[in-house]
Amino acid sequence: MSADEDVVESGPDTMTLTEHLGELRVRIIRSALAISIGMVLIIAFYNQVLDFLIRPYVDLCARKPADFCDPTLNTFSPTEGLATRMRVGMYGGIIAALPVILWQIWRFTVPALNPKEKKYAVPFVLASILLFAAGGTLAYLTVGQALDFLISWSGSDVNQIFSVTSYVTLIGLMIFAFGIGFLLPVFVVGLILVNAVSPRRLMRSWRMALVIIAVIAAVITPSGDPITMALLGVPMMVLYFLAIFIGWLVVRRRPVEE
What is the dihedral sign for C-alpha 223, 132, 115, 240? Predict the structure, then answer.
């Protein structure tokens, strides 16, 4: 049997395994190129970006007594400054390239979708970008509360001297965790669109879903404090029910469209 005979002929977009691998390589290269361009731009404006990232910590120290925390971040090795710059560039590059990455993922999955599913391409990409941005913004606005909680548990006789690498890693992971967590409705609506699950079934399993969301929030929260877990878990639970409602509207419209 030839390679072409291994292909399931489901439409004009059907491709062989070799073509799929070639398509995947092209999408990965384009995403990597977008990330590289984003890294160059972020590194070029590193000082402004770093000032923006440390602003919540500086504001926290300004509100607290002088002995609560030191607003100056430190480096403890000659190479830490370069490592921090590259880390900020990597995190920022991925975030800046997110629209390109999501579009490349969608374009790779398009051949496996039917014409009705393909029309959701732009809404899905736009919704993913907006939700990720909303989650990252919430993380940035609430990182000060997480730091306040964590520092207060260190003890009154402990000096708070943080390295710039540890702080950048914490806030970067928090932004990614909140951004990914806020993509939950996109994932749920996607499952409903491909008939993997129904809104009725998701609604019947809401108790188990809330437990799973709470576990996910606890796992992906980098700081591990209850305040951050609640700030991530509660919006995810709300977004879960919102996704069920959107999925129900989509399913309800299907007979009319057909």
Answer: positive
Cα separation, 229 vs 232, in Å, equals 5
Tokens 């002929």 correspond to what residue?
9
DSSP state of 220: H
Please give the pLDDT value at position 13: 52
How big is the chain, counted in residues? 258
Local structure of 131: helix, strand or coil: helix
The token pair that represents 175 in the structure block:
């932004």
The letter for the amino acid at 39 is M
Other C-beta atoms within 10 Å of 122: how many? 10
Residue 191 CB neighbour total at 10 angstroms: 15
pTM, two decimals, is: 0.81
Does residue 182 contact residue 94 with C-beta atoms inside 8 Å? no
Are the beta carbons of 175 and 141 closer than 8 angstroms?
no
Residues of the chain with pLDDT under 50: 1-12, 256-258
pLDDT at position 14, please?
60
| Helix extents (H) in 12-160 | 17-44, 46-63, 80-96, 98-109, 115-118, 121-152
